[in-house]
Specification:
Elements lengths: L1 E3 H4 L9 H10 L4 E7 L2 E6 L11 H12 L12 E5 L5 E4 L5 E10 L8 H9 L7 H13 L4 E4 L7 E6 L5 E3 L5 E3 L5 E4 L4 E4 L3 E2 L11 E9 L1 H11 L4 H6 L8 H16 L2 E4 L2 E4 L7 E5 H8 L5 H10 L5 E2 L13 E5 L10 H12 L21 H13 L3 E2 L5 E2 L1 H7 L7 E2 L10 E2 L3 H14 L5 E13 L2 E13 L1 E3 L8 E2 L2 H12 L5 E5 L5 E11 L10 E6 L1 H4 L9 E6 H13 L12 E10 L4 H9 L6 E10 L8 E10 L8 H19 L2 E2 L3
Parallel strand pairs: 4-15, 5-8, 20-24
Antiparallel strand pairs: 1-3, 2-3, 6-14, 6-15, 6-16, 7-14, 8-11, 9-10, 11-12, 12-13, 17-19, 18-19, 21-23, 22-23, 24-25, 25-31, 26-27, 28-29, 29-30, 30-31, 32-34, 32-35, 33-34
Length: 697
């Protein structure tokens, strides 16, 4: 939610500059992603969790700021100039579906004049991302952004019999909403109706027939409380998501409805003129008494492991509206370990249900940074998870290679998941998804990794190396199955430009080198060309653990994303991806570590020989290395690829590969004759098995 810094100052005299306020709010559990400038002043973009509908208005955030800085919260006290005539003599309200609407207030204004809004209001709304419509509509939107309570205004003269009926929609009942779309309703939806037909979809959007126009003179202001689940279901079924439904489906405060109505009437009268009829028609059938919650210092000490001064506890709880009263009759001091307070749950904090919630409120407003970072004593013995040590070594190696770890949500878009799903894998589909782009559990970690790369590239991050240790999901015999996987993603420069070297783009060889360094922890990888079709041809390979008796079953795949797949995703850089099944990799790492043994440093010098070969395309370095190892030369220590070259005088269909072989004896210094014998055997084997020739130029 966007928060206008100057609007917050209407309710609390905060002097902290926006960057400091951003940091303090974030530490208190209301993360602020960014700060932008607007004509109306700095705008903070805050992330509000679903359990905090009270923070969907500036007044609610101002309450949080007042608690953080121990400031006075300015109350909202509208002053109305009412006429002698009563609103109840002009309109009536009937709630036929109390399970869908717990409270409904109606206030009447007459003689208003619809026109453009003043600059100060228009600028505030535009800073919030809300288009200015007219002075009356802007006033109701302003109150919504101010108090977090959605409102709606009807043209009173367009309501049949000038009365309101809150009821369920009739089967196949239709209504044309303010966006001009005719919508068919179901019997489970709540509607606002007049004596004849539905005039609004409750808590979602008003109807076009009762819309305020330039000629409107009499208004009925609606401020109500609607059942959250009903609003969420209606909004989803109609595909109609609005600022009002966003707030109602999270659970608005029923007690603020009448206050918001008065504030809207006050503002409309200031902007549109006219007169306010006396009183309000307020149908509120089931007002719940506030819940009592006891808060004790003992529980605070038990949970947080540290103390908070009694004065801070009381100031925080008072500002937040919990009305603390000493439950110990002041027999002990406020700073005593036995101090206790009796509190009341505010109507706007339905999420605070017990003492543990009050501990959280005190702790986050006092400042989590003021509590010592220590773990509570364990009541049960703890055991590390299987392969935990190996997983930690794998994570450390990936970070050492320059990769950053990410954690992504496994709920992904079904169409994107299908694009990367392996053949024969049955997806794990969510029965009741919250959003279309989160309707299936990912069948491969590649989907989430591409999403992370895409997001970062769109936000100006060009050079990326990311990894995730997570899970992929599928159905096996109609039962859900989870498979831990390691996913890597890279794009951009492998090396930045320096005064000594030019910049170099990340290539498939870089990905292979990084994976080989990871593979060394498990004894090395064997590579086999080929892979899924969404990888680029010639730049994709399957990986398996290298073993003495041959390669193990496939561990995963690595390659470069093909342009055919990357372009629809608007990925304009080359993208490199890898996914490895985690458990066999970790088991291989543990086995490789267990087989390690001490070997003394060689007493005699090693000898290196380079073989510059011309090979046919399709013959790999791995095949050449295996051919050399098959000779079983005891003095052979290492085989490395030193250089690769194509073009020039190399014939088409062939390439030049320089292989560096290291020999070393533990008994004596190798003679030239011995090294020459090793070299001739190697050349003969390569010529005979692979058709290789020594390069002469």
């Amino acid at each position: 939610m966007k928060l206008l810094y100057n609007w917050l100052k209407d309710f609390v005299d905060v002097t902290a500059p926006p960057p400091e306020l951003r940091a303090r709010l974030s530490l208190a559990g209301i993360p602020v992603d960014s700060i932008e400038e607007s004509v109306a002043g700095p705008v903070l973009d805050a992330e509000i969790t679903a359990n905090r509908p009270d923070c969907l208005g500036h007044f609610g955030i101002a309450r949080e700021i007042a608690a953080i800085y121990r400031l006075l919260l300015k109350p909202v006290q509208p002053k109305l100039k009412e006429a002698g005539e009563k609103a109840s003599d002009t309109t009536r309200v009937k709630i036929e579906s109390p399970d869908l609407c717990g409270r409904y207030t109606a206030r009447i204004l007459r003689g208003v004049k619809i026109g453009p809004s003043p600059d100060w209001l228009r600028q505030r709304l535009e800073a919030m991302g809300q288009k200015s419509i007219n002075n009356m509509v802007d006033a109701t939107n302003a109150v919504m952004f101010e108090l977090g309570q959605p409102l709606h205004a009807f043209d009173l003269d367009k309501l049949a019999e000038r009365r309101i009926v809150v009821r369920r929609a009739r089967p196949t009942e239709k209504i044309r909403t303010l966006d001009g779309v005719e919508r068919t309703l179901s019997k489970d939806m709540c509607v606002i109706a007049d004596a004849a037909h539905a005039v609004a979809i409750a808590g979602v959007m008003g109807g076009a027939e009762s819309e305020i126009g330039a000629s409107s003179r009499s208004l009925l202001i609606e401020s109500a409380w609607f059942e959250p689940t009903s609003i969420r279901r209606t909004s989803k079924m109609l595909g109609l998501r609005t600022e009002a439904s966003y707030r109602f489906e999270r659970g608005a405060d029923p007690e603020i409805a009448e206050l918001a109505s008065r504030r809207a009437a006050e503002l409309i009268q200031q902007l549109c003129g006219g007169e306010i009829l006396a009183g309000v028609v307020d149908v509120y059938r089931h007002r719940e008494p506030p819940r009592k919650i006891e808060f004790t210092r003992k529980e605070l000490l038990r949970v947080m492991g540290a103390d908070v001064p009694g004065r801070d506890i009381e100031e925080i709880l008072v500002v937040l509206g919990f009305h603390p009263v000493r439950a110990d009759a002041n027999r002990v001091g406020a700073d005593s370990p036995d101090a206790a307070w009796q509190c009341e749950q505010p109507s706007w904090r339905r999420d605070v249900a017990g003492e543990i919630d009050l501990v959280e409120e005190v702790a986050r407003h006092y400042g989590y940074d003021k509590f010592p970072p220590r773990l509570p004593p364990a009541k049960q013995p703890a055991h590390r998870l299987p392969h935990a040590e190996a997983e930690e070594r794998l994570r450390e190696r990936a970070i050492a290679l320059g990769y950053e770890e990410i954690v992504t949500i496994p709920l992904v878009d079904a169409r994107r998941d299908e694009r990367f799903r392996a053949e024969g894998v049955a997806p794990a589909i969510i029965g009741n998804p919250l959003a279309e782009d989160a309707s299936v559990m990912r069948s491969t970690g590649v989907v989430s990794m591409i999403g992370a790369l895409e997001w970062n590239l769109n936000h100006g991050q060009r050079n990326l190396r990311l990894f995730e240790i997570g899970k992929k999901y599928e159905l096996r015999n109609s039962e859900p199955a989870e498979t831990p996987v390691l996913t890597l993603g890279a794009t951009g420069f492998a090396r930045e430009k320096t005064i000594h070297e030019p910049a170099r783009e990340f290539k498939f060889a870089d990905l292979k080198g990084d994976l080989d360094r990871l593979g060394k922890l498990a004894g090395g990888f064997a590579w086999q060309s080929g892979g899924p079709g969404w990888f680029a041809s010639g730049h994709v390979a399957h990986l398996s653990l290298a073993r003495d008796g041959g390669a193990s079953p496939s561990l995963g795949v690595a390659g470069q994303l093909s342009r055919r797949v990357a372009e629809p995703l608007k990925l304009r850089q080359e993208i490199f991806l890898a996914e490895l099944t985690l458990e066999p990799l970790l088991v291989g790492m543990e086995a490789a570590r267990a087989s390690l043994h001490f070997a003394p440093l060689g007493r005699f010098p090693a000898v290196e020989r380079d073989f510059s070969l011309v090979l046919s395309d399709g013959i790999t370095f791995a095949e050449a290395a295996e051919t050399i190892r098959a000779l079983e030369i005891p003095e052979l220590r290492r085989i490395e690829a030193a250089d690769l070259f194509r073009g020039g005088q190399i014939p088409a269909g062939k390439y030049s590969l320089m292989i560096r072989v290291t020999f070393e004896s533990a008994q004596a210094t190798l003679t030239d004759a011995q090294v020459a014998d090793f070299s001739s055997r190697i050349v003969a084997a390569l010529e005979g098995r692979l058709g290789a020739t020594l390069r002469t130029n």
